[in-house]
């Protein structure tokens, strides 16, 4: 199966190239850029030297549709909503890594992203690509809205509770991310001297992933409350930890909660449940497509604590995108993705 990448010079695009290089059924046909056409991708990323010697090409959907079966859009928010209709008309499948196609309510997109939303036709035909929980729809989709990094960690961590408790009183998601989550372009927010030895909260009550998480938990259980979500930037390159506190409508136990997770993720190759009383850290998933989860119940406060970790560029972006491609084309779900994490 031949694939192209738009936004190949970004971190998500580069991670796609790395994964596809180890895939038995996907082959990289072409890489595309809006600003570096004619340049070799290995000039931009010397770690690809002598291995990936593709030249960056212009973004020409008609040309791409002649040679590729699938295009990954690893572009900033606001771009894929314009490109996707061309690919849709040309019958080439699309996996969009940006936030453009995830929210079904266009007003919500405009409110949180502060941009014009994609057309209803495009958002209507996009399938939300949370691989573990939407496999059937993904396998029949032509357009995938790949989930955001924080929503992936949060939703995989919340799903068993949301689906098994009738009513949840309160959800707090306290999330931390490494700096590669902000992409490769330069900004003062990701400047070494402002990130190193620093811990910073950002987009308080305004983070664009809030409505994405709420959209999915309310689809799973209409009694789900709005969430309190906060994002923090920490001085590391990759990784997300979402620590979540959920107040349930009834008394439970750590064992009951752990059993729910065990059952929910039995046979899922990329979600690993820690043994009772043990919790994951970001290095447990570094460079891999795993989402590791630990859970416990605090009987003093009647709150369930869930810790969910992912690598933002893998399970939070390119890894899950390839997992979705595997499901779309009927390949083994794990193809190209079974590498162990890098440790330490
Ligand atoms: N980084 C992460 O952890 C995650 C990222 N995402 C999402 O994935 C997408 C890609 O992220 P990431 O790779 O980190 O971002 P980067 O900023 O690293 O890369 C984005 C790339 O998009 C290209 N681009 C910029 N403007 C345009 C344009 N007008 N038309 C076409 N291409 C353009 C640029 O390449 P060029 O100038 O060569 O065209 C750039 O290299 C984003 O939407 C991001 O929000 C989602 C989950 C996690
Ligand atoms: C560190 C950092 O800035 N992370 C980004 C991650 C968002 C992202 O990946 O964008 P989408 O909206 O396409 O999901 C943020 O928190 O906004």
Automatic annotation (TrEMBL):
It is an enzyme of class 1 (oxidoreductase). Its EC number is 1.2.1.38. SMART domains: Semialdhyde_dh. Keywords: Amino-acid biosynthesis, Arginine biosynthesis, Cytoplasm, NADP, Oxidoreductase. It is found in: Cytoplasm. It catalyses: N-acetyl-L-glutamate 5-semialdehyde + phosphate + NADP(+) = N-acetyl-L-glutamyl 5-phosphate + NADPH + H(+). Its main location: cytoplasm. Residues 2-141 form the Semialdehyde dehydrogenase NAD-binding domain. Pathway: Amino-acid biosynthesis; L-arginine biosynthesis; N(2)-acetyl-L-ornithine from L-glutamate: step 3/4. InterPro entries: AGPR (IPR050085), AGPR_AS (IPR023013), AGPR_dimerisation_dom (IPR058924), AGPR_type-1 (IPR000706), NAD(P)-bd_dom_sf (IPR036291), Semialdehyde_DH_NAD-bd (IPR000534). The active site is at 149. One of its GO terms (molecular function) is N-acetyl-gamma-glutamyl-phosphate reductase activity. The keyword NADP applies. HAMAP family: ArgC_type1. Catalyzes the NADPH-dependent reduction of N-acetyl-5-glutamyl phosphate to yield N-acetyl-L-glutamate 5-semialdehyde. Belongs to the NAGSA dehydrogenase family. Type 1 subfamily. This is N-acetyl-gamma-glutamyl-phosphate reductase. It comes from Peribacillus deserti. The lineage of its organism: Bacteria, Bacillati, Bacillota, Bacilli, Bacillales. The gene is argC.
